[in-house]
Amino acid sequence: MKKQEFVIGLDIGTTKICAMIGRHNEDGDVEITGTGVTPSKGLRKGVVVNLESTIDSVERAIEKAEEEAGIEVVKVFTGIAGGHIRGFNSRGVVGISRTSREIKCRDVERVIDAGKAVAIPLDQEVIHVIPQEFTVDDQDGVKNPVGMWANRLEAEVHIVTGAVTSAQNIIKSVNRAGFEVEDIVLGPLASAEAVLSTEEKHSGVVLIDIGGGTTDMVIFSRGSIRHSEVLALGGDHVTNDISVGLRTSPQQAEDVKKDYGWATPSLIKREEFFHYPGVGGRRGGKVSLSQLCEIIEPRIEELFSLVNADIDRTGLARSISAGVVLTGGASLLRGLPQMAEQILDLPLRLGKPNGSVKGLGKDKDSPIYATAVGLVQYGLAYRRQKKMARFKGRNLFSQVALRMKEWLGEFF
User: Fold this and answer.
1) Quick one: DSSP state of residue 37?
2) pLDDT band at 406; cut points 50, 70, 90
3) Which residues have a Cβ under 8 Å from the Cβ of 27 and sit 6 or more positions away?
């Protein structure tokens, strides 16, 4: 296989960095051929705080994936997340002044440009401009207006922005590790590609991606993204609560959470006691599952109360017919889905990479790897789009490769 037929997705998270290499197999399915995972030591809440540590983690993760896949890669598709991410909706309007009144591709580009002509803070940069739907004269709900006749064309778009410095530091980390960023993608949008079905996106669904440092949320309806939000709460906050409550180290608290943690006390069928180590050789202690749950439960309840409040603010609650899909590593905490379903009062399922992706194996068929799988799927679609007409190439993600190259040229 040629190197350009392979795509590498790089999920740079707060707790782990995951690199996945994939391609389209002979049947046209996405196939994962290599995976590399390393602890993330240079990020906090999705933002680079130690450049050298991030570079080292990125390099080791990609090397592991290359070794398993048996190839070397140069370009990567990387995710971006963090509390600096902002999402909002906008509208653009243009007139069709030609005699023919036929909408051309350049008219679609003009109306999308009009939609993104909004004021944003100087420290923010546009990451995605995602078309939701178009209105041709008085006909709304149009997905592709090219070729239609009209006097007026309107576009509703969802704009995602992020801190310029955060994006620069991610790109610089990848470059310093010896690789090139081919495109940068918002993490929960990549996860959505991996775990949501087309039917769910059309019916209305909330995707909640619970990572280590943040919880990312996107709402889809009528096949398009309608809302995106980043909450500054994640799995690490639960770990920190356990560390303080038990007076043990963060790493030992993380192990306790994974081995014994429950979010919902009523689901604990049998009371058990377990021992945990102290810090620096000090004597540890003994605690029951119920006592541990008393530490965990308030934080998880707080998280989903914030999610519920955000859904209410959007006014989209009635359009969420398909319910909620939970993904991300922290979603695996015992009893967490049940608490989420109770607080949100919506049907819920756990989001794993969909079955059409081959080569994952049982150990990788997990919410933990949803973003990395989605980045591979996005990258493969992106490569195909480059061979198509410019408008036909637009899908869930905006094409921002040119902007990334400009950033690289300007800052690095």
Assistant:
1) E
2) very low
3) none
> How many whole angstroms separate alpha carbon 55 and alpha carbon 65?
16
pLDDT value at position 364? 80
d(CA 316, CA 203): 12
Q: How far apart are CA 281 and CA 312, in angstroms?
A: 48
Find residue 104's DSSP bridge partners: none
Give the residue from 286, 304, 144 showing the smallest Cα distance to 208: 304
- Relative to beta strand 75-80, strand 47-48 is unpaired
Please report the pLDDT score of residue 4 as a whole number.
59
Give residue limits of the domains in the chain.
86-161, 198-351
116 membership: H or E segment, kind and range: none
284 pLDDT band, cuts 50/70/90, is confident
Distances (CA, A) of 277 to 177, 243, 252, 256, 282: 36, 11, 7, 10, 8
Sign of CA dihedral 104, 110, 115, 120: positive
In Å, how far are 98, 239, 403 from 375, measured between CA atoms? Answer: 40, 27, 18
What are the two backbone dihedrals, phi and then psi, of residue 39, each rounded to the nearest 5 degrees? -60, 145
86-161 CATH: 3.30.1490.110
Look at residue 354 and give its three-state secondary structure.
coil
Give the pTM: 0.88
Residue with tokens 């707080």: 302
Residue 396: how many CB atoms within 10 A of its CB? 19
User: Angle CA(278)–CA(281)–CA(285) in degrees, nearest 5?
Assistant: 25
State pLDDT tens for residues 227-250. Answer: 999 998 999 999 999 999 999 999
What number does CATH give the domain 198-351? 3.30.420.40
pLDDT given at position 396: 37
Residue 280, token pair as written in the block: 């620096």
Residue 302 zone, left/alpha/beta (φ > 0; ψ -120 to 50; rest): alpha
Instruction: Give the DSSP letter string of 220-237.
Output: EETTEEEEEEEES--HHH
Per DSSP, 151 falls in state S
8 A C-beta contact, residue 24 and residue 32: no
How many residues make up the chain in this entry? 412
Within 13 Å, how many C-alpha atoms sit on residue 193's CB side? 25
3-state secondary structure of 370: helix
Each residue's pLDDT tens digit, 130-159:
999 999 998 999 999 998 999 999 999 999
What are phi and psi for residue 264, nearest 5 degrees? -125, 110
Given its phi and psi angles, is residue 314 left (phi above 0), alpha (psi -120 to 50 degrees) or beta? alpha
User: How far is CA 332 from its chain centroid?
Assistant: 17
